[in-house]
Amino acid sequence: MKKYIYLILPIVILFCACSDNESLFKKALNKDKQGQTEQALQIYSQILKNDPNFYSALVNRAILYDKLGDTKRAEADYRKAFEIYPRSIELLNNIGSFYLKQDKNGLSIYYLTKALALQGDYFPALVNRATAYQKIGNFPAAYKDLRYALELQPDNYVVLLNHAIYQYETGRYSVAVQEFTDLIYKNVKDPKNYYRRAMAERKLGQYANALEDCSAAMALQKDYVAAIFCRAEMLYAKGEYEAALADLNNLKAINNKYVAAYDFAGDILSLDDPQSAVQNYRVAAQLDPKNVKKYKSKISALKTNSGRKYIATRRFALIDGGK
Asked: What are the tens digits of pLDDT across the range 299-315?
């Protein structure tokens, strides 16, 4: 199953600067608040041209570079800021969050642990380190951080969400269903938790419930491709092949590069319409050249009755294997 993207608590460091650059710094802050990221970035660069060691401008510029996807420049600014002020827990958390988003989990844990060594109950670093531990499969360490974070803020939505995800990741699917249900009660308009609950229900073989939750997620977000795909799988598991195909066609209309939709459609069509199945497999092969052998193998299997039956039964096994 595809891993969920864990929520990260960004801590934006906005120190007041007491120098000749103060007015420029305030101007940059205002530009950022107004959503004028590029203009704010230019002002921070001007400040740092005047004073290369202006700590707050370095940190805020790093945040903006990261926001724009320029991770190399963001990392350079963060490293320089760390050299200037290595004992800032906010900075250490920011750096840890930065590496966490890039799946550089070892580096993330390193900086977050430094932050927690300075202040053991620093909530954002606890949440972020728990996420990093979950990503590398160190579930006991993740659980320890999550439990402490819950002690500090028992009603915090992000911690409750990460705790529910932890339950799913460690195979406690019934508990995960209950915890995602609690989160849905807290925010009934968030489609993601309906989808997350559906995935836990699928693991329990509760296909009807999973189908209902996928539909609820889609009602809240019509282009939620993961929920559409999940519902197609649940419909297929119930034997409603035409409805499953309708969902997949809808998905392909939303995202015509979603490889799994073509592969799944090909599998559904393999028994009754092998020609259309071939067309879907060929599109999948074009979109996913690394796995072209798999699609060619399926196209070859379509030539015999036993091959077509194998494709169909294999697809069901993949769905049923999610239990």
From this structure: 999 999 999 999 988 88
